[in-house]
Amino acid sequence: MLISFEQINYTYPCNPKPTLRGLSLDITAGKRYAVIGQNGCGKTTLFRLANGLYQPSAGTVRWNNQPLSYRRAALYQLRQQVGLVFQNPEEQLVAATVEEDLSYGLCNLGLPDAEIEQRVGQTIEAFELTDLADFPVNYLSLGQKKRLAIADIMILRPRLLLLDEPTAYLDPGQVRNLRQMLSTIQAEGTTLVIATHDLNLVQDWADWVIVMNQGQIVMEDVPTAIFSRQHFLKTIGLS
Questions:
Q1: How many Cα atoms within 13 Å fall on the side-chain side of residue 123?
Q2: Which of 64, 133, 193, 217 has the smallest count of CB within 10 Å of its CB?
Q3: Where does the record place the ABC transporter domain (predicted)?
């Protein structure tokens, strides 16, 4: 098991009502997972629990069958293995130029300069950022910023990549490019989990679909089985 959630509860400090309630889920290596549900159902909270940004109010998150440690050093190591791309890429772009942004995480790891240069060069080429290497991050289009945000995580070579609404605000051409990028990432051995409202993407991309409603997982199965239950999906605001 790559990562598992066991009877997870999570309550935000300012909200007396739990966001997640008794949630249990297993993610195995190598599959493409999609998490669907209405806004506020807990998808983003689940992702932030997965890489230790949040700590559950109750229950246990396990990585490689070991409970997460919330010590700073342990979380630092975890986030090299569990990458999270936010819905708004501007939340995680920190440097002035594309090349500087890609090198930022590697510099924090204390890697030798030669290795940093090699990895940055490989990532720029792999994510088709060559023409943008010296470009100011602030002037990138939203689609380019999303590509850079994913590249920022993938340069760390994580085993699990979580993407929160990756197709939001993208035009059809950018969505096609994103899908191609995700296929390449999976082929290199990274397990993918996306939270999305794009049911067309889910239907023909995912290996396994997780349906959330009001802080709980109410159904999980292969896409054909999930979308055969149209009446149920409509009752929870999905169609």
A1: 26
A2: 64
A3: 3-239
C-alpha distances out from residue 141 to 109, 147, 154, 185, Å: 29, 10, 20, 22
The answer for 168, left when phi > 0, alpha when psi is -120 to 50, beta otherwise, is beta
Other CB atoms within 10 A of residue 80 CB = 16
Query: Token digits for 148?
Result: 């850079």
DSSP secondary structure letter of residue 170: -
Is residue 57 within 8 Å of 11, Cβ to Cβ?
yes
Centroid of chain to Cα 34: 10
Q: What is the mean pLDDT of each run of 10 residues along the chain (239 residues)?
A: 97 91 97 96 97 97 97 94 94 93 90 93 93 94 92 95 92 88 92 96 96 97 97 92
Residue 130 class from Cβ within 10 Å (0-12 exposed, 13-18 middle, 19+ buried)? exposed
* Domain annotation for the chain: domains and CATH numbers: 3-90+160-235 (3.40.50.300)
* Separation CA 179–CA 73 (nearest Å): 34
Distinct helix (H) and strand (E) counts, the chain: 9, 10
